[in-house]
Amino acid sequence: MTSKLRVGVAGLGTVGGGLLKLFADPNSRVNEKMVLTSVSARNRTRARGIDISAYRWFDDPVEMAEDADIDVLVELIGGSDGPAKRATEAALQRGAHVVSANKALVAIHGRALAELAESTGAKILFEAAVGGGVPMVKALRESLSGCTAHAIAGILNGTCNYILTEMEAGGRSFEDVLSEAQRLGYAEADPTMDVGGFDAAHKLALLSAIAFGARPDFEHVRVEGIEQVTLTDIRMAGKLGYRIKLIAKGESADGGVAMHVAPALLGFDHPLANVSGSLNALVADAEPSGQLTFIGHGAGEGPTASAVAADLIDLADGRAGFAFGRPFKQLAEAQRAAPAERGRYYMRLMAEDRPGVVAAVSDRLAHEDISIESFLQMPVHDGPVVPIVLTTQICSRAALEAAAGAIESAGVVAEPPRLMPIEESGARTRPWSQR
Ligand SMILES: NC(=O)c1ccc[n+]([C@@H]2O[C@H](COP(=O)([O-])OP(=O)(O)OC[C@H]3O[C@@H](n4cnc5c(N)ncnc54)[C@H](OP(=O)(O)O)[C@@H]3O)[C@@H](O)[C@H]2O)c1
Q1: Which residue from 15, 108, 156 has its CB within 8 A of the most atoms of ligand 1, so it is best to mutate?
Q2: Is pLDDT of 153 > 80?
Q3: CATH number of residue 143's parent domain
Q4: Which range of residues forms the domain containing residue 403?
Q5: Which residue's CA is the closest to the ligand 1 atom numbered 14?
Q6: Looking at the structure, do residues 150 and 115 belong to the same domain, yes or no?
Q7: Is residue 394 one of the residues assigned to a domain?
Q8: What CATH number is attached to the domain comprising 347?
Q9: How far apart are the CA of 200 and the centre of ligand 1, in A?
Q10: 251 and 290 co-located in one domain
């Protein structure tokens, strides 16, 4: 019997293929303390550009997970249920460790999986599930374990960031960039998980659980995607000194944690404002460390396989700890706090081009005690509707929504006002040395 950790890989697609290349490299550290013994995928004969003949083949990943000849299951199939879940449970039930890149599975079933792992003495690690090659999970779980986190904010979906970056750089519409991204294979044929914000929400639920010591709670993430962001929004925001990004944010509030994913305006000096293309990034605001920023490639064969390899090496070196940083029973219950309601906001109106409209808008805002910070109208436009945007001073979201409803009812706009939060650039925390 070998003393090396025996690894079985389920899923030989983009990430699984990258991992097998690492195992095929004699210089890779994965080969020092581990041996790849078994693999599973749907189609044994598919050309994969990697030789799998040396490994035991399993048609069924669950059967591989139940096989006593593997110590670790690497789950790279995907999907929150089905074979990925069944194989993960089968491995943990018999005390075998699991390394997963599957954010949907861990965000939705993380509580049960972490509890099951603890009950059998197994470990479940998922660095690759969030931020691909960017070590966000480890940073929050290990490097910042001595800190108190106040807020985390990230760009966690490369497809959305690519689309927003291309819209701004090329002056192109959301639909145009999305269909090109689908043609090039950067976006899925069904893009809902990405552009609807759900993929970022899965990742946020995982990062928030670790950062704030709570049980993962995907159900309570407020999610808004980028489908409604128009080129007009991007241009008008740019004229006002902002860039639009899909921001996944978790913050401690009122004894709980508020989690929300939404397009937001960032001043050009915000640490996430210049994270472009398919890059991912996370800003953590914690005490006493102060603000930290992590940035890099959030997807792709190499970055994601490198994160899986790091988890495997932690297991082989006996360094792997609890899935969410603490024993499951010590994690706080569900995160129920409402997202922070007060802040500055952007409002875009598609207004009727006639006298009295601006007065009607400012009246409705004044009625809700909302002060306007800046106001911008496109000088040149076609047709009877003209875009007007404004930014507010700090106000409550509820009041702004009430004003937006009143503006819509006043019959001066052609569509409901569009609201987006403005993210402040400053850190909530400072390192102690700067106090
Ligand atoms: N791609 C990325 O950049 C990236 C980044 C971060 C996280 N992830 C996550 O990593 C996981 C894998 O992603 P991926 O992009 O590598 O996926 P992928 O390229 O679609 O590969 C999926 C693999 O799973 C296999 N598979 C599907 N159904 C199966 C079944 N019933 N039994 C056994 N094997 C089955 C497929 O087999 P066949 O090859 O035979 O069809 C394929 O090898 C997902 O959870 C994803 O969210 C991916």
Answers
A1: 15
A2: yes
A3: 3.30.360.10
A4: 342-423
A5: 14
A6: no
A7: yes
A8: 3.30.70.260
A9: 18
A10: yes
The reply to whether 428 falls in a domain is: no
Q: Give, using CA atoms, the residue closest to atom 20 of ligand 1.
A: 13
Query: Which residue ranges have their beta carbon within 6 Å of ligand 1?
Result: 10-16, 40-43, 46, 61, 76-78, 83, 101-103, 128-129, 132, 299-300, 304
**Residue 192, in any domain of the structure:** yes
Q: Amino acid identity, residue 204?
A: L
**Best residue for ligand 1 mutational test, from 76, 103, 203 (most atoms within 8 Å of Cβ):** 76
> Residue 1: its pLDDT value, please?
45
Residues annotated as catalytic (active site), given as ranges: 203
Token pair 């374990």 is found at 145
195-220 burial string, b = 16+ CB within 10 Å, else e?
Answer: bbbbbbbbbbbbbbbbbbbbbbbbeb
- As beta bridge partners, residue 253 has 256
Contact 198, 223 (CB under 8 A): yes
Q: Is there a single domain that holds both residue 178 and residue 92?
A: no
CATH number of the domain bearing residue 79: 3.40.50.720
Better-predicted residue by pLDDT, 9 or 342: 9
Please give the distance, rounded to the nearest whole angstrom, from the Cα atom of residue 11 to the centre of ligand 1.
Answer: 5
Q: What is the 3-state secondary structure (H, E, C) of 167-228?
A: HHHHCCCHHHHHHHHHHHCCCCCCCHHHHCCHHHHHHHHHHHHHHHCECCCHHHEEECCCCC
Q: How many structural domains are present in the chain? A: 3
Give per-residue pLDDT as tens, 26-69: 999 999 999 999 999 999 999 999 999 999 999 999 999 999 89
Q: Which amino acid is at 143?
A: S
- The more confidently predicted of residues 282 and 341 is 282
Distance from the CA of 14 to the center of ligand 1, in angstroms? 7
Does 164 share its domain with 236? yes
- Considering only CA atoms, which residue is closest to atom 30 of ligand 1? 42
pLDDT for 378 equals 76
Same domain, yes or no, for 351 and 284? no
Q: Extract the tokens encoding 95.
A: 């005390």
